[in-house]
Design a protein that fits this description.
Elements lengths: L2 H10 L13 E7 L4 E5 L12 H11 L5 E8 L9 H10 L4 E5 L5 E5 H4 L11
Parallel strand pairs: 3-4
Antiparallel strand pairs: 1-2, 1-3, 4-5
Bound molecules: tetrahydrodeoxyuridine (THU).
The site of tetrahydrodeoxyuridine has 15 residues, from helix 2.
Length: 130
C-alpha cells in the first residue's frame, strides 16, 4: 500500500470516531509486515478513563487477529497541526515494534514522518525483564 493510501485510510476513520466528550476525532491505519492494514478510531466513555485512542484500537484489533509485526502507522486528525500519539500509545506500539514509521496527517492531507524511536527513546521494553 502506498503512503497516500495508508493516510487516506486513517483519514477515513475520522468519521467512525466516538467522541461525544472531546469532539476530537482521531483515525489510525496500522500496516503489518505482511501488508495487512488494521484501522482504528478513538472511542470515548462517559467515565472518561476507559476511553481508547485510535492507535490502540488499531493495535488491539491487529493483535487480536493474530498480527504482531508492524511496520507503519498513519495517524489522522481534523486539525491544522499534526496530532502526535500520546505516551500510552507510544508504549503500546513499542511492545510490538522496536522501531516503526509513524506518519502524522493533518486535515489538509499534509504529512509529517517520524520514527517510533524518535517519539519514544530509551523505552522500557521486555528485554529488561529477562
Ligand atoms: N487521542 C487519540 O485517539 N490519539 C492520540 O494520538 C491523541 C489523543 C484521542 C483521545 C481522546 O479521545 C481525544 O483524542 C482527545 O484527547
Amino acid at each position: 500500500m502506498t503512503k497516500t493510501e495508508l493516510c487516506q485510510k486513517a483519514q477515513d476513520m475520522l468519521k467512525m470516531a466516538y467522541v461525544p466528550y472531546s469532539h476530537f476525532p482521531v483515525g489510525a491505519a496500522l500496516e503489518c509486515a505482511d501488508g495487512t492494514v488494521f484501522t482504528g478510531c478513538n472511542i470515548e466513555n462517559a467515565a472518561y478513563g476507559p476511553s481508547n485512542c485510535a492507535e490502540r484500537t488499531a493495535v488491539f484489533k491487529a493483535v487480536s487477529e493474530g498480527h504482531r509485526s508492524f511496520v507503519r502507522i498513519a495517524i489522522a486528525a481534523d486539525t491544522d497541526d499534526f496530532c502526535a500519539p500520546c505516551g500510552v500509545c507510544r508504549q503500546v506500539l513499542r511492545e510490538f515494534a522496536e522501531d516503526m514509521e509513524v506518519i502524522l496527517v493533518n486535515r489538509r492531507g499534509e504529512t509529517q514522518e517520524l520514527t517510533l524511536r524518535e517519539l519514544l527513546p530509551y523505552s522500557f521494553n521486555s528485554g529488561i525483564l529477562e
